[in-house]
Design goal:
single chain; 1283 residues; alpha+beta; 27 helices
Length: 1283
């Protein structure tokens, strides 16, 4: 049977414009397409090469400015060099050839270095690692593995019956190559390309070039000016397809390489303003608008999080550039509203500079009061919710059936925690449009309030474009008011998610065209009720039983301006004096009592409001007090006072359980509000679908409880699951007593069909006499009283700790002014930075999570401008970065044993505050490496003292109390810590009381003290020196001191001193012998280096490296001394030492002294062998023409090494460097590399890393050699990463 095919694709639903009236508006006014409007996109950065972002309809550049406000793209180019023979040496060590067409009158070049991966979005970095591994590593490595396996097979076949030492080593070398290649494959980690950067002034402007060739071929690389000057950009390579531009600051000392940290920002920009001349249906909302793209997400923290310093920098830039409208599709939750440095700058931009500020409301719904900062928490902002239409369902989501218009289930809901509505308006929250080239995908579908906000921003650009072209005056205040008053209500959506309605472009434009040049056009009316922006009654303490509740509403007119410099001009002063409006107040709900009129002028006015909340049914109720100008009510309310009242359900229920039934269609939800009973610490929700028209129902259970000055995530739980009919889902989560808990059950917006569901909530819990529980190690026994206020409760108490918290103080703090134009305020206020350095030492490997706890749980409300920190190792390699919400985003990494530095960056306008904060502590949270530490728990204090029977299950009667007791953690269990415990350290964990219910756990801390060490009382612990007389001790000390001076003299003088000491003391001590041997070894090594370099000129100074006969003489003297020790038993009795080493138990009276003496002799002898073998090995594998056949040969070396192994073994770390040289001398390069890796435990100096490069070069493993060279550039940078 033939079927019809619909070839008319609903393209209009891919990037929705019909729903907001944008299509009708553009049809009616095609020239009002955003032309003349500049949109600032504060996001992950924008790819100017993405489809639709090249030009505007009139042929001008679309993206007019690109900036990286995060600082992650900054390169330190303060090093200045001059060209020699047309070349300069980059910080990578590469020779960079200067193109002949570069014009550099000064001849000076600023150079820097940058890792490509520090500029790459995380998904791209992952792809590049895979592709680069295939190209640069896997192919050559597999060839080597194949050859090594073949060589191993051959060596097994041709194995001699009695192999010589050389043959044994050759066989081991073959095996070592196989093992080393396997190890390299397992540990391979691509560091990515490393680029040299060059900056210079061409006489007119600063220019920069990034050596993307990685070979110094600057001719093949693009020379660019700062982006805003010439709009240049290029890509790093065809492999990555990542485009970048540059900006140059501080007279060439800072180069900013601007990339994007994700697809998000490009997608957002295209929604607002993409222009596709060949396919207009895919245009953004305002195709004629221009884009200023500012990256606020920091790649160093993962690329998905904004930082306070990046937002501040971005807003400063927006003000400097005089943008018309800002879109921020980022956000977090805020503890308090309308406060903090970001709020201050946003308010300045809106109120003093005429810039409209739109931001996403958040994706944290469907529960109430889940809106985020900055859009919903700053009065000057416009918070945008996410709406979905039937056309979007067909085009974007390919749904089988359309469902009614609605807001998305996940779109955040109001009200804000201070009573404001939260969501201002809504716009379509999904789109399929362009993304950056590096995705290898031209377009993507994304949804979220991140998409609704730029859609609304594009709509706003259309309106502003029309107003500008018609010469109609407007202000941010008049625009926001018109937006709200013309928004379209959607009956199927509630006001908490929709806000005042769906953006309507045509209606807003008509409204502003008709109602302008009014007294209130440049006035915003700030509403204040007890410090909030509205009335929000939610908690039991908010409701006065049996009484009407009265509130005082304060209305403060505030004049705004489009030009900060003109803010106090005479005209505006006269307008302020003349300002007067007669208002009619109205409210559509009878439970609100208000006055009927209000006369307002340029001063604060107030009126009272009475609420009869007891007349309301359980649930959430919203209404508004509307203020109309009596002379023209058609223009809509001048201000609104939002009122939200939440009435909880009755507390009368059986066993503290509430049960409900619901019948839900797509996008529908049910909200229930219950008061958490006293004594409850957790709740359990049970959900079961009883009937569904679809096989599976997608339901979301979202619970939220609000605490004073907290955020909704503090007590939030969300279960998002696929439910099968008849199958019960259960979840538990913590709650807080005597507060109102919302339980919201929603059927997902796109889940078709009808679902019947039964669900319930039951409260549980016991309370303790302290929360969080704090236990001190000094309190041998700690008592806690546990009570149950809900029911008879059985408990099985246990407490465990999984984290060590270390407190560190700054060792250095520097306060200085910021100088770049990125950090200049509009009014010229100086900004200052405070960089604090915290140093700490890891005694063994472990995880660390730094936390600047003073500011780490705030961002948009932060009074300072920065709290960014970076973690470095002792070589200044950047390992980790973090900003706000350290715990939420899990900024942590694993560190090896060693020393580390954290650099914290604070910024503020007041140096006094920075001076106060510069000694603030940093917390370092260390995960415990093995199983969590636990405390023993007892039900009786006596049992705790005696270490008797632990507490089992304890039954607590209703409203009864039981005591439990804890003992301290034994010292032997505290050895797993990765750092040394000092004052201020404590353990973190939890106390679990109700068995198998982690939600009922209570935070617990254990304050540590120093461990106890008792001195021994054995006579054998006496010092070996007690058997010596003072004169003997004096002579030994004198000899040691004299020996130490040998290394401080020039070699000729050192030899004279040595001979005198030997003449006086002989071989009673090897101290002078070892001192002169080490000095001679250094001379020999420096001489060989000079021979290797081919230098023939004689030494010109006394400190110059020896050459020729002089070097030969030092070598003969060296071996004369070593042979007198290791080959002459008359001087050193090796047999006696070997005999002692064979004794297992020595019970003699002077055993301690004898043991000490023999261990000292052994140590000195091993060190003598070590320096002897190391120098001989060096002479063997370093090319030279010296005649040393009688002193140095491979057989002699092997024989002497075999002798050494009588006194120690090859795994002895004290001889590891010697063993490595010995292996090199025997041609066992792979074994030498393996020994280096084994003996240094992952901690390598630059010298060792360069040695490994050399060794891999000797093996001919060029891919490994190249790989390590790039890693050296990153592991040993010339300076700390810039903030």
């Amino acid at each position: 049977m033939a079927c019809s095919i619909d070839t008319d694709f609903p393209t209009h639903g891919l990037l929705p414009k019909k729903e907001t009236g944008a299509i009708n508006f553009l049809t009616k006014y095609p020239d009002f397409n955003g032309d003349g409007v500049t949109i600032a996109i504060l996001d992950t950065g924008v790819d100017p090469a993405a489809k639709g972002l090249q030009e505007t309809p009139n042929g001008e550049t679309k993206v007019i400015d690109l900036y990286d406000a995060s600082g992650s793209g900054d390169v330190d180019t303060s090093t200045v060099v001059e060209a020699k023979d047309g070349e300069i040496t980059g910080l990578s060590g590469r020779k960079l050839k200067i193109p002949g067409d570069w014009n550099n009158p000064s001849g000076k070049y600023h150079i820097g270095i940058k890792s490509a991966y520090s500029l790459c979005p995380r998904p791209l970095k992952s792809r590049l690692k895979d592709e680069r591994k295939k190209q640069l590593w896997t192919r050559p490595h597999n060839q080597l593995v194949s050859q090594a396996m073949k060589d191993k097979s051959e060596s097994e076949k041709n194995k001699p019956a009695k192999p010589s030492e050389t043959e044994k080593l050759a066989k081991s070398e073959v095996d070592a190559k196989v093992e080393l290649l396997s190890s390299l494959a397992d540990k391979y980690e691509d560091c990515g390309p490393v680029y040299d950067c060059v900056v210079f002034h061409d006489g007119n402007t600063w220019r920069a070039c990034v050596d993307t060739s990685e070979t110094g071929d600057l001719i093949s690389c693009q020379l660019m000016a700062s982006y805003h000057e010439e709009h240049q950009f290029t890509r790093f390579s065809n492999l990555d397809m990542l485009n970048f531009s540059v900006n140059i600051y501080q007279e060439g000392n800072i180069l900013e390489i601007c990339t994007n940290s994700g697809s998000h920002g490009t997608h957002v920009a295209c929604i607002s303003a993409a222009y596709h001349p060949d396919n207009p249906q895919r245009n953004g909302v305002a195709p004629g608008a221009k884009i200023v793209a500012i990256k606020i997400s920091d790649i160093r923290t993962g690329g998905n999080e904004e930082t306070s310093s990046s937002i501040v920098r971005a807003m400063l830039r927006v003000i400097q550039l005089k943008c018309d409208v800002v879109n921020v599709s980022f956000g977090e939750t805020a503890k308090w509203n309308n406060d903090g440095r970001v709020a201050e700058l946003v308010s300045q931009a809106v109120n003093n500079h005429g810039i409209l500020f739109l931001s996403s409301a958040g994706n944290s719904g469907p529960a109430l009061t889940t809106v985020g900062a900055p859009g919903c928490t700053i009065s000057a902002g416009i918070g945008v919710g996410a709406y979905v239409s039937p056309d979007m369902m067909v085009a974007e989501y390919s749904m089988r059936e359309k469902v009614p218009h609605n807001t998305y289930t996940w779109s955040s809901r109001g009200p804000a925690n201070d009573g404001a509505l939260g969501v201002t308006i809504s716009a379509p929250g999904g789109a399929i449009t362009s993304v950056p080239d590096w995705n290898l995908c031209g377009q993507e579908m994304m949804n979220g309030t991140s998409m609704s906000s730029p859609n609304a921003t594009g709509c706003m650009a259309l309106v502003l474009s029309g107003l500008k072209k018609r010469g109609i005056p407007y202000s941010t205040a008049s625009a926001k008011r018109a937006l709200i008053n013309t928004a379209k209500n959607v009956e199927s959506a509630d006001i908490f998610s929709l806000g005042h309605g769906l953006f309507q472009v045509d209606k807003m434009f008509e409204h502003m065209s008709e109602h302008h040049s009014l007294p209130e056009d440049f006035v915003t009316f700030n509403v204040s009720v007890n410090g909030g922006r509205g009335i929000y009654l939610r908690e039991p303490s908010d409701m006065l039983v049996g009484k009407l509740q009265t509130y005082t509403v304060v209305i403060t007119p505030t004049f705004v301006t489009n030009n900060f410099e003109d803010a106090e001009e005479l005209k505006q002063k006269k307008e302020k004096i003349a300002f007067q409006v007669s208002l009619a107040l109205t409210c559509g709900d009878t439970w609100v009592s208000i006055p009927t009129h209000l006369e307002i002028m340029n001063t604060s006015r107030q009126f009272s409001v009475k609420l009869d909340v007891e007349s309301l049914q359980p649930g959430a109720h919203f209404t508004e007090i509307l203020a109309y100008d009596v002379s023209c009510i058609e223009k809509g309310p001048l201000f609104r006072v939002p009122i939200t009242v939440v009435r909880p359900e009755s507390e009368s229920c059986v066993d503290h359980q509430h049960s409900w039934k619901a019948s839900l269609n797509s996008g529908e939800m049910r909200r229930h509000f219950v008061t958490v009973p006293s004594g409850a610490t957790c709740a359990t929700v049970r959900i079961m679908t009883t009937k569904s028209s679809e096989p599976n129902a997608i339901l979301c259970m979202h619970s939220v409880l609000l605490t004073p000055k907290g955020i909704f995530q503090d007590y939030e739980h969300e279960t998002f699951a696929l439910f099968s009919t008849g199958v019960e889902e259960l979840c538990s989560f913590p709650v807080k007593e005597n507060l109102t808990l919302e339980v919201c059950l929603a059927k997902y917006w796109s889940n078709l069909g009808h679902t019947d569901v039964e669900y319930s909530i039951q409260f549980h819990g016991v309370t303790v006499s302290g929360s969080p529980v704090v236990i001190h190690a000094g309190s041998s026994v700690t008592q806690l009283d546990v009570s149950s206020l809900l029911r008879r409760q059985k408990i099985a108490p246990s407490v465990s700790f999984n984290q060590l918290v270390q407190t560190v103080r700054p060792s250095k703090a520097t306060i200085e002014p910021l100088s770049t134009k990125r950090d200049t305020t509009p009014d010229g206020t100086n900004l200052f930075s405070c960089i604090m350095e915290y140093t700490f030492k890891m005694v063994k490997s472990g995880d660390v999570n730094p936390d600047f706890s003073l500011l780490s749980d705030i961002l948009y409300e932060n009074p300072l401008e920065s709290q960014f920190w970076m973690l470095f190792d002792e070589h200044k390699q950047h390992l980790l970065s973090g900003d706000a919400y350290t715990q939420r985003y899990g900024y942590k990494c694993k560190l090896n044993a060693g020393e580390y530095t954290i650099r914290l960056h604070l910024r503020y306008t007041d140096t006094k505050l920075l001076e106060k904060l510069k000694k603030s502590p940093m917390l370092l949270r260390h995960s415990l490496s093995s199983a969590p530490l636990s405390l023993s728990v007892y039900s009786e204090q006596k049992e705790a003292i005696l270490g008797g029977k632990s507490a089992g299950v304890i039954s607590i009667p209703l409203k009864g109390i039981k005591s439990i007791f804890f003992t301290s953690i034994p010292d032997e269990k505290l050895k797993q810590f990765p750092v040394t415990v000092t004052a201020g350290c404590y353990l973190r964990g939890s106390l679990t009381l109700i068995k198998d219910n982690a939600a009922a756990s209570i935070p617990a801390e254990y304050v540590l003290s120093d461990t106890c060490t008792l001195s021994g009382d054995s006579s054998k612990d006496k010092s070996a020196n007690e058997d010596k007389d003072k004169m003997t001790e004096y002579k030994e000390a004198q000899l040691r001191l004299s020996s130490q001076w040998i290394s401080k003299f020039k070699i000729a003088e050192a030899l004279e001193l040595y001979k005198k000491l030997v003449e006086d003391n002989g071989y009673t001590s090897l101290a002078p012998h070892l001192a002169i041997l080490n000095s001679l070894a250094k001379e020999i090594e420096s001489g060989l280096e000079k021979v290797k370099a081919g230098a023939e000129a004689p030494p010109t100074t006394a400190d110059a490296a020896p050459t020729g006969d002089q070097l030969q003489g030092y070598i003969h003297e060296f071996f004369k001394i070593t042979n007198s020790i290791i080959h002459c038993d008359d001087n050193v009795n090796k047999a006696e030492l070997l005999t002692f080493m064979g004794i297992k138990n020595d019970d003699s009276d002077n055993s301690a002294a004898r043991k000490s003496e023999m261990n000292k002799r052994k140590k000195d002898l091993v060190e003598t062998y070590s320096v002897h073998l190391a120098t001989m090995s060096l002479l063997i594998y370093t090319p030279n023409s010296l005649d040393l056949a009688d002193l140095v040969s491979l057989p002699i070396l092997q024989k002497d090494f075999k002798e050494l192994l009588k006194f120690t073994d090859a795994s002895d770390k004290s001889i590891s460097k010697t063993y490595i040289k010995y292996l090199r001398a025997n041609g066992c390069v792979a074994m030498a590399i393996s020994q280096i890796n084994k003996s240094l435990d992952g901690s390598k100096s630059k010298e060792i890393e360069n040695l490994l490069v050399q060794l891999y070069g000797e093996l001919g493993w060029t891919h490994v050699e190249s790989h390590l060279k790039d890693w050296i550039l990153l592991k040993f940078p010339p300076s700390y990463t810039l903030f």
